[in-house]
């Protein structure tokens, strides 16, 4: 079987590894013009301050071997050990090395080739066309094109001092003066990367996170060993089409009663996230990294292990409720690692960093930018865009390809964003796959969908 894999990021690595281990001798062609294939945008060479944001057990590209990455890391992770997390938290560039080596081993059989060209279209009979005008005939096509590219929320593209895409920070922060006033648009994990990296470079000027709500990501708590008995994917499968938010809430309550915790405490804490001072809340969360309480850990697990199964079954009214609380949900589901929590807390406590909600407008002004918020206007010399693209958005480089797939009837748009295959010969792996929860997908979800695609390909 001739398989065309479009994109050479982590999703493609998981897919190639699964296909290689299946023992099937497919003829596989991977298309990607990137100068750093297999790493994707997040794991290219960058500053050491740009860390993998989750513990090693959640970063394996093998869905059935959670220790694969940790084993690869071995003694190399010792110098990046975070005592608060109880695990090594390495620079993302090092994880990129893991992806490259895993892809290399999967290609060792000789049946995989990498074509360094962009795919711009495909026909109904699966002739894949590249930007250079070449065509390749395929029997199956798998899209692994990654997440969308950052937008320009305030129309600042091209303005002096505006950084529209912060990565790689090693390049984009190089031109930022040591005493410059910096505004970072957003307050999620990308914003944390920027602020922490500025601090690591010895930046002395003021740094402000500006966003609509001002809410920071939660801080990872040290992973515990408790496995949920009630709030798990099996419970969702049993409920099937009868699943609702109310029933999931009941399962969560039962889980906490099982271990002697009060659901009211975690609910009160989550409500307070909307109004708490971000710096003070951050310090409290750092102090609770090793708490024995399991409630927040269980909710985070549910976001990634339960919600992907429940989301497509929930009534639309329940999905709308979750979307209204998306900022809180993303903050909970995608926490910052403790070492970054400590660094951010220190920046807050020194007065160098603040977080400002209610941003209304950012406009280019003489010698910088004016940031208009509910509390007034502040000036900045540099603005860094750390707003992530919405889940399911199409990367600019893949727009032509997606339009061709839609036009040929091979795929269809999903009302929640992204696309879904309309033809069994086409598969979509990763952020672009429609019908996922609005939470940004992580490596576990990507490799699970890659494994599902590999099974479908080997059985087809």
Secondary structure: elements and pairs:
Blueprint: E1 2-6, H1 10-22, E2 27-31, H2 68-73, E3 81-82, E4 87-88, H3 92-106, E5 112-115, E6 119-122, E7 127-130, E8 135-137, E9 140-143, E10 162-163, H4 169-172, E11 182-185, H5 189-200, E12 207-210, H6 233-239, H7 245-258, H8 263-272, H9 278-287, H10 295-305, H11 307-310, H12 316-324, H13 326-333, H14 338-350, E13 353-356, E14 359-365, E15 368-373, E16 376-380, E17 382-385, H15 399-407, E18 411-413, E19 419-421, E20 426-428, H16 443-459
Parallel strand pairs: 1-2, 1-9, 2-5, 9-20, 10-17, 11-12, 11-17, 12-13
Antiparallel strand pairs: 3-4, 6-7, 7-8, 14-15, 15-16, 18-19
């Amino acid at each position: 079987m001739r398989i065309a894999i479009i994109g050479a990021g982590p999703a493609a690595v998981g897919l190639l590894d699964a296909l290689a281990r299946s023992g099937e001798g497919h003829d596989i062609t991977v298309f990607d013009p990137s100068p750093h294939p297999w790493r994707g945008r997040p794991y290219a060479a960058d500053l050491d301050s740009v860390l993998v944001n989750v513990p090693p057990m959640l970063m394996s590209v093998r869905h059935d071997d959670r220790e694969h990455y940790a084993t690869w890391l071995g003694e190399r992770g010792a110098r990046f050990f975070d005592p608060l997390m109880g695990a090594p938290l390495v620079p993302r560039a090092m994880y990129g090395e893991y992806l490259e080596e895993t892809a290399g081993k999967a290609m060792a059989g000789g049946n995989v080739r990498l074509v360094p060209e962009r795919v711009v279209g495909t026909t109904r009979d699966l002739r894949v066309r590249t930007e250079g005008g070449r065509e390749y005939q395929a029997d199956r096509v798998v899209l692994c094109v990654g997440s969308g590219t950052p937008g320009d929320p305030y129309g600042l593209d091209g303005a002096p001092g505006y950084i529209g895409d912060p990565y790689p920070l090693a390049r984009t922060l190089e031109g930022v003066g040591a005493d410059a006033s910096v505004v970072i648009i957003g307050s999620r994990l990308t914003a944390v990367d920027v602020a922490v990296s500025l601090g690591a470079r010895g930046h002395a000027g003021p740094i402000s996170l500006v966003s609509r709500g001002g809410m920071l990501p939660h801080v990872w708590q040290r992973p515990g060993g408790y496995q949920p008995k009630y709030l798990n994917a099996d419970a969702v499968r049993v409920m099937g089409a009868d699943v609702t938010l109310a029933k999931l809430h009941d399962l969560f309550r039962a889980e906490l009663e099982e271990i002697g915790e009060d659901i009211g405490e975690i609910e009160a804490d989550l409500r307070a996230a909307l109004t708490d001072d971000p710096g003070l809340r951050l310090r409290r969360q750092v102090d609770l990294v090793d708490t024995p309480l399991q409630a927040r850990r269980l909710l985070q697990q549910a976001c990634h292990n339960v919600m992907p199964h429940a989301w497509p079954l929930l009534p639309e009214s329940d999905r709308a409720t979750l979307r209204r609380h998306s900022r809180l949900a993303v903050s909970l589901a995608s926490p910052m690692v403790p070492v970054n929590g400590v660094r951010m807390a220190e920046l807050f406590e020194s007065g160098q960093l603040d977080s400002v909600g209610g941003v209304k407008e950012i406009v280019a002004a003489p010698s910088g930018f004016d940031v208009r918020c509910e509390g007034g206007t502040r000036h900045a010399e540099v603005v860094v865009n750390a707003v992530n693209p919405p889940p399911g958005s199409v990367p600019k480089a893949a727009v032509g390809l997606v339009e061709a797939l839609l036009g040929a009837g091979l795929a269809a748009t999903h009302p929640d964003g992204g696309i879904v295959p309309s033809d069994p010969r086409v598969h979509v792996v990763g952020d672009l796959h429609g019908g996922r929860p609005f939470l940004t997908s992580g490596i576990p979800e990507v490799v699970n969908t890659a494994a599902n695609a590999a099974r479908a390909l080997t059985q087809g």
